[in-house]
C-alpha cells in the first residue's frame, strides 16, 4: 500500500498535470479487503492519537479539498471514526462572513487550527482563496485589498504572492509543531454526474444537492487548472499534497487512513517519561493503595 500511495504524492517543484492521475484507481484490492484493511489501520490511528495527546508537543492538521460530491464528508466520517472525538476538531468552511472579510484571508483559518495534542480536520480550507477565488476573482473584491478594486488587477503576480503567503503560513505552522497533510480527492466528471443523479433520485439525499453545483460543474476545466496550479505551487516536503483517486470511495478512505498512519510514524511520538521524584511519588502512592484495609 505504501508504494501505491507514493504515486499520489505531489512532488515539490514538479508541475502537476491531473491527466497523469487515474481517478478510478483501486490497486489490486477488492472492496471487502479494502474495508478490512481500513479497520486495521483505524486501530493504529487510535493508538497513535493517544500518544499525540499524551506527548502534547505536536498537532496534526488534515486538509480536504475537492469538487462537489467527491466524498469529503464521508471520508472524514469513515477515516476518523476510530479516533477519540475529544482529541479531534472538524471545521467545515463556508463562504466568509463580513467579519472574516474584514481580516486577511488566512485569519479565520488560523483561528481554527488544532491545539497541541489534537488532530484538526479542515473540510475546505484556506485553499478556497486560490481555487474558488481564482475561478471567480470577483469574490476577492470583498476583501478590499489596496490596489485590487478590479478583477483586471488580479494577474499572475497577485496569485503568486497568494501562493507564497500560503507556503509561509504552512512553513510557520510546521516549524511550530503542526504536521500538515493536504488531501485532494480527485473525482472524475463522469462520477460526479452519477453522484449528482443519485442525490436527485434519492429523496433522503435531495438536501445534499444544490442548483449552484451544476453552475460550478460547467467550470470544470477552469477548476482543474486552478487545482493543478495551486498544488504545483504549494506542495512542499513539510506540507505535501496527495492527489487521491476518489471514484472508488472505499479506496480513497483506505488511502487517506494509510497516509495519516505514515504521518504519525514520522512524528516519532512517545509517551512522556516522569521525572525521578514523580516516579518515587507514584511508588509511595502505590504502596499506600496496596496497604489499604
How would you describe what is shown here?
GO terms for molecular function: polyphosphate kinase activity. The chain is an alpha/beta fold and 293 residues long. It has a single domain (2-290), classed as 3-Layer(aba) Sandwich (Rossmann fold). It contains twelve helices and five strands. It has helices at residues 2-6, 31-55, 72-79, 98-101, 107-111, 132-135, 156-175, 189-201, 211-217, 220-234, 249-267, 276-290, and strands at residues 59-66, 88-92, 119-123, 178-186, 241-245. Strands 2-3-1-4-5 form a five-stranded parallel β-sheet, with helices on both faces. The longest helix has 25 residues, at 31-55. The termini are far apart. The mean pLDDT is 93.
CATH topology: Rossmann fold
| Overall number of domains | 1
Instruction: Please tally the helical runs, counting DSSP H or I stretches of 4 or more residues.
Output: 12
Query: Major sheet, described briefly?
Result: 5 strands, parallel
Helix content bin: 40-55%
Radius of gyration: 22 Å
How many β-strand stretches?
5
Amino acid at each position: 500500500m505504501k508504494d501505491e500511495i507514493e504515486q499520489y504524492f505531489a512532488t515539490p517543484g514538479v508541475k502537476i498535470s491531473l491527466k497523469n492521475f487515474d481517478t478510478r484507481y483501486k490497486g489490486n484490492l477488492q472492496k471487502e479487503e479494502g474495508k478490512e484493511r481500513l479497520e486495521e489501520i483505524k486501530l493504529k490511528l487510535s493508538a497513535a492519537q493517544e500518544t499525540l495527546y499524551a506527548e502534547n508537543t505536536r498537532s496534526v492538521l488534515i486538509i480536504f479539498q475537492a469538487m462537489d460530491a467527491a466524498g469529503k464528508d464521508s471520508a472524514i466520517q469513515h477515516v476518523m471514526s476510530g479516533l477519540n472525538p475529544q482529541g479531534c476538531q472538524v471545521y467545515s468552511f463556508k463562504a466568509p462572513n463580513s467579519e472574516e472579510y474584514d481580516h486577511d484571508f488566512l485569519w479565520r483559518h488560523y483561528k481554527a487550527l488544532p491545539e497541541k495534542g489534537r488532530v484538526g480536520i479542515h473540510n475546505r480550507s484556506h485553499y478556497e482563496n486560490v481555487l474558488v477565488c481564482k475561478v471567480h476573482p470577483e469574490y476577492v473584491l470583498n476583501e478590499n485589498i489596496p490596489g485590487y478594486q478590479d478583477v483586471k488587477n488580479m494577474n499572475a503576480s497577485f496569485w503568486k504572492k497568494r501562493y507564497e503567503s500560503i507556503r509561509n503560513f504552512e512553513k510557520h505552522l510546521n516549524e511550530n509543531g503542526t504536521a500538515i497533510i493536504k488531501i485532494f480527492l480527485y473525482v472524475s466528471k463522469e462520477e460526479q454526474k452519477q453522484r449528482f443523479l443519485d442525490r436527485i433520485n434519492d429523496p433522503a439525499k435531495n438536501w445534499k444537492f444544490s442548483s449552484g453545483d451544476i453552475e460550478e460543474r460547467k467550470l470544470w476545466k477552469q477548476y482543474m487548472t486552478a487545482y493543478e496550479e495551486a498544488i504545483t505551487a504549494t506542495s512542499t516536503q513539510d506540507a505535501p499534497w496527495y492527489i487521491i483517486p476518489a471514484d472508488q470511495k472505499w479506496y480513497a478512505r483506505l488511502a487517506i487512513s494509510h497516509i495519516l498512519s505514515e504521518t504519525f510514524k514520522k512524528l516519532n511520538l512517545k509517551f512522556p517519561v516522569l521525572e525521578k521524584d514523580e516516579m518515587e511519588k507514584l511508588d509511595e502512592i502505590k504502596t499506600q493503595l496496596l496497604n489499604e484495609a
